[in-house]
Every structure is written in C-alpha cells, then in structure tokens.
Write a structure and sequence with these properties.
Elements lengths: L4 H4 L11 H19 L5 E3 L3 H9 L13 H6 L5 E4 L6 E4 L1 H17 L11 H9 L13 H5 L17
Antiparallel strand pairs: 1-3, 2-3
Helix pairs in contact: 5-6
C-alpha cells in the first residue's frame, strides 16, 4: 500500500480493544466475572446461565451494549486473559483462563503463608493450612487442575521458595 496521507491516518477499525471511554467499565466487568466464578464450584458455569447468575450475584442487569458489544459471546471472548469459553451448543461453559487461575492460586498461597508463624509450611499440610486460612476444605479442581503440583509449577519465579526436607523418623 502506498504511504499517502489517507492511508497513514488511524481508523476506528484499526484500534484494538475497547474505546477508552469503556475501558474502565470493562475492567470492572472483568473483576466482577472473576468474583462471580470464584463462588461457583470448579469456577465453571454453563454459558446459558451466565446472564441470570450475573443478575442474581450482583443485583443488576448485564447489558452487553454497555461494553461496546452486541453479543455476550463476543464480549467474553474479548477477555481471553481472564475467561475461557469451552464446548459447543448446549454444552458451552465459561470458566476462568489458566492464567487467571494461577494468579488466584498464587494470591491464596501467599495469604496462607502470611498466616503461618514462620511464613512456611510443609506441602503435605497444604490442605490443612488452606482450610484454616479460608474456612473451607481444599478442592484443587476449583483452580482448574487435577493435582497440586500442576499449579505449583506455574507460579511465577521468585514468588515462593520451595525446598526438599527430610523428616527424621
């Protein structure tokens, strides 16, 4: 394409993301979705239940047009760093993206460590420390993984320090 004054201008269709006026609202919406999904076992919700669940959880309507979209699916797909849409048709679900789950888990782990007198605990006592910190039993599936070690390996470097210890018997 020839570099003419007409071609050098920025067009609305060339911009990525929401218009600046809607960016703040979209950030708030993103936080709301995370908060809502965290309350659901497995952080997984049927797509068709999203609007009623949002209304029930926050006591307000979810109007897709408020965020610059015409379809809920398009709005949710614009948040790949937070939301994943999996499945098709009647079996479509909304869940937190792995990156968001790792962020959640990391924050929860740091809260657990802060509550410990020496800011440390054995991995074998993880479920007990979790229950004492959050007053509910640990379900690792709520973080989107099957094994604790699956998510521990994804925690950003220099966040926690792990070491192998030998317990004398």
């Amino acid at each position: 394409v020839e570099a003419t004054p007409e071609n050098l201008g920025v067009k609305q269709s060339d911009l990525v993301g929401p218009p600046p006026a809607l960016a703040g609202q979209l950030i708030t919406f993103t936080r709301e979705i995370v908060d809502m999904l965290k309350t659901i076992p497995g952080c997984k919700l049927a797509f068709y239940k999203f609007i009623p669940r949002y209304h029930h959880h926050f006591g307000k309507q979810c109007r897709v047009a408020d965020y610059g979209y015409t379809k809920l699916k398009d709005l949710l797909e614009s948040l790949p760093h937070v939301i994943q849409i999996i499945g098709e048709g009647a079996k479509t679900f909304i869940t937190l993206a792995h990156k968001a789950q790792v962020r959640r888990f990391t924050n929860d782990l740091l809260k657990m460590l802060k509550n410990q007198p020496e800011k440390q605990f054995l991995l074998s006592s993880f479920p007990l420390v979790f229950e004492k910190t959050f007053f509910k039993p640990l379900s690792i599936y709520d973080y989107g993984v099957c094994h604790l070690t699956d998510i521990l390996t994804d925690i950003p470097e220099n966040t926690i320090f792990t070491e192998d210890v030998t317990v004398a018997t």
